[in-house]
Amino acid sequence: MNNGEHRFSFHATFTLLGGLLSGLVGFLYLLAIPITILSALPEKWFAFAIITLALGPIFAFGLYVYRRHTGVIELTDDALTIVRGSSRRSIRLAEITAVRERDRHVPPNMTFLAGSRSFRFSRKVEGFPYLYELLRARVPVMAANGPASLPLILDARRWYRMNLYGAVVLICALWLILGVFSFSTRQFDNPIEVASILAACAALMSLMAFFGFKPGKQQPVMIAFDTNEISLAFFSGKRRTVPLDAVREIRIYRTSRDIATDYLAARNIEYPLGITITDGTRYLVDEMCAKACRTTVERVFFALRDAYAGRGPVIENYRPSGGENPMRRVTSESKRNGHTHDS
Predict the structure, then answer these.
(1) For the segment 223-251, what is each residue's pLDDT rounded down to a tens digit?
(2) pTM here?
(3) Is 323 left (phi over 0), alpha (psi -120 to 50) or beta?
(4) In angstroms, rounded to a whole number, what is the distance separating the alpha carbons of residues 267 and 222?
(5) Fewer CB within 10 Å of terminal CB in the chain, N or C?
(6) Quick one: which of 294, 255, 292 has its CA closest to 273?
(7) Cβ–Cβ < 8 Å for 46, 79
(8) Strands (E), the chain
(9) If DSSP codes are grouped into helix, strand and coil, which group holds residue 117?
């Protein structure tokens, strides 16, 4: 492989999860066939049809995730190729006329357009920010956005409030409907106790949803990059303004969180933008915040690199260290820590 050739693999976590999901559902479906045939119940084929309707979409989604995250991406000086086994699909970089950096797929794709042709792949790629940088240098349309202008404002406050409070309201509404249905269909010996249990379940699930998705203390929900300062606002309402000369570094990091079992761990890997100030505090702008502002972490990074060129903080992209594998055996220490910064 020469200096102009690079290979990037998809996150093994998604390959594993897609394969396990489709394999488990397929096994359950195959198990249901002899059970249905041997059953004496007159409604057995109706029940089998219901099972098919229920499991079919889950099985298809598992295959879809597995397929999307199998293979490698090869980038050369003049072409981008996805290799899956003996299958190769390529697009010439010079032919690309437009780029869509994310879409509504789960997880989202990066899409390249060349006339009537489209070429897409999942953004869940090991070392994606570095791949993005290489593409930006080799695909003219990606680097032709012009100089970045300040202030650059990412304001996701309304998005976080609507989603977090909306989730709480939805959970409470569902439990309220369940309670009304339960009390309207039967009489309880102790209705106050039953109502208390339902309310406690609704409150517990609401708290889990709220604190599970609420941004952390070091994750601003609004950040404004200006010529001489950076302003931050947090979900709690706290605000902070940092002079630009007090910002030590802006860079994209690789963070990971273990989804652990006793023997094997899947790692959820993300690439947030970190703003580190001189007192050592680091604020993170993650993909969710960027998505809420209709942009991506990579676009924000390169806009800042252009805007602050030659002055202010050190601005660096993530670089793969080589040999990275998101699947590993879990140690007791990693289980306790759960979340790590790898680079």
Answers:
(1) 999 999 999 999 888 999 999 999 999 99
(2) 0.79
(3) left
(4) 28
(5) N
(6) 255
(7) no
(8) 6-9, 72-75, 79-84, 87-92, 98-100, 109-114, 117-122, 152-155, 222-225, 229-233, 239-243, 247-252, 255-260, 265-270, 273-277, 282-285, 314-316, 339-341
(9) strand
